[in-house]
Amino acid sequence: MSDKDFVTALRKGLDTLTCFSRVHSRLTLSEVARLTGCTPASARRSLRTLWHLGYLECDGKHYWMNHKCLLVANAYLASRPLPSLAQPLLDGLSERTRESASLAKLLDGEALIIARSTARRSLSVGLGIGSRLPAYCSALGRVLLASLPRSEVRARVRQMTLQALTPRTVTDASEVIARVDEARERGFATSDGELEIGVRSMAVPVFNRAGAVVAGLSIAVRADRMGLSEFIEGFLPMLGRARDRLGEQIYQD
């Protein structure tokens, strides 16, 4: 895209809208400026515009998302085939394993969940469609990074903030890259207590009919339910079968 076609104000507005999350549900002007890297004046213009259009609410100090934002989210889910194709398979996988299953795509340095089936004994409160997981320490993120050329993986990892979310989180860039390399070689990725204490997760890449990776499919268990080796041996075949069935239905996404 040429510079003349790039609308900076639109980018700033979208950056403002996407800085809201479960962690940052109510934000002040200064907090939005910090999260987006904009000046306070620029952040104020974006916030006031989004408020005027009905995408944000404001009490005079704090801003938060309005339900109108669901129009954008629903438009994606309704217009793309992958989430709807995956949902029955996720439900079946969750029912057979009695664990939660997720489908995600790579978005910058995160794995963005686009479909999910939650087991009754859900491991993560608040995890659902639209949730974002750090790619460097999640099984979904690693398996999605593994679909990229190694040079791109190195560049992306070097730009990430490798924060220790638990005592087991790998925060050394070289080791993160090694875990991604391992996922590429094995055809699946794991995360053992790195994202959440006491939780093990495993993910496989989902291919379309052209052989391109279009998403990652994962399942997670409590660490006290089974060891990592037992988890891989017992659940990887089921994960692979669900992945293959989904891939047979996808031409592109």
UniProtKB/TrEMBL annotation:
GO terms for biological process: negative regulation of DNA-templated transcription. InterPro entries: GAF-like_dom_sf (IPR029016), HTH_MetabolicPath_Reg (IPR050707), Tscrpt_reg_IclR_C (IPR014757), Tscrpt_reg_IclR_N (IPR005471), WH-like_DNA-bd_sf (IPR036388), WH_DNA-bd_sf (IPR036390). The keyword S-adenosyl-L-methionine does not apply. Residues 68-252 form the IclR-ED domain. PROSITE patterns: ICLR_ED. Pfam families: HTH_IclR, IclR_C. SUPFAM superfamilies: GAF domain-like (SSF55781), Winged helix' DNA-binding domain (SSF46785). One of its GO terms (molecular function) is DNA binding. Keywords: DNA-binding, Transcription, Transcription regulation. PANTHER family: HELIX-TURN-HELIX TRANSCRIPTIONAL REGULATOR, ICLR FAMILY (PTHR30136), TRANSCRIPTIONAL REGULATOR (PTHR30136:SF34). This is IclR family transcriptional regulator. It comes from Caldimonas caldifontis.
